[in-house]
Design brief:
The chain is about 25% helix and about 30% strand. The chain has 2 helices and 11 strands; from the N terminus they run αβββββββββββα. The structure holds dinuclear copper ion (CUA). Dinuclear copper ion binds next to loops.
Length: about 190
């Protein structure tokens, strides 16, 4: 074998390996795109269709995020709306109560900096951006307690910013709402 053909053989091997890795990379991209599509369509983790705003400076004074309006409320159609605020370093309400087997809409915003709203074991995972209302829908299958950590670094107290979502039996929830317009677990 001459030096020349030796070199060509080496180049052939290199080209073959390169093609193999290129194919594998494309396959990985295809797989990840497919996974994102399945998660987006199947679990309905969709970005909200329109932007709603809320002035973080006046949240506590007027509008839907005044303290007396926070917590869980039953809508005329039987679904439940939960309103919450994130601030350094807690959620209000700290503990959210919702019924099982019912469509639940979360409406939340921030009173200061960017926080994260994540409910473990659900598709709820979003940022709370001051000035904007984050809207997400979900349904809880069974009574359980879900941890709700802030998942965006928001300052020195970030690690301690945790809330909780308590999913209760539907009949029990309706009994509770008969007595109060807005529910939280610490009522
Ligand atoms: Cu709020 Cu991290």
């Amino acid at each position: 074998m001459t030096l020349e053909s030796d070199h060509n053989a080496g180049a052939d091997v290199a080209a073959r390996i390169e093609r193999r890795w290129a194919t594998l990379s494309i396959a990985i991209v295809g797989l990840l795109t497919g996974m994102a599509a399945v998660i987006g369509i199947h679990q309905a983790t969709m970005p909200q269709g329109h932007v709603e705003t809320a002035d973080p400076k006046t949240l506590h004074l007027s509008g839907e995020f005044v303290e007396s309006n926070l917590g869980s409320a039953v809508e005329p159609d039987g679904s439940v709306t939960v309103r919450a605020i994130g601030q350094q370093y807690s959620f209000t309400p700290q503990c959210i109560v919702v019924p099982e087997g019912t469509p639940v809409t979360f409406r939340a915003t921030s009173a200061d900096v960017v926080h994260g709203l994540l409910i473990e074991g659900t598709n709820i995972n979003t940022m709370l951006v001051p000035g904007y209302v984050s809207v997400l829908q979900t349904q809880f299958k069974a009574p359980a307690e879900h941890a709700m950590p802030c998942q965006e670094f928001c300052g020195i107290g970030h690690q301690g910013m945790w809330g909780k979502v308590k999913v209760v039996d539907k009949a029990a929830f309706l009994t509770m709402t008969a007595a109060r317009r807005r529910l939280t677990c610490v009522d």
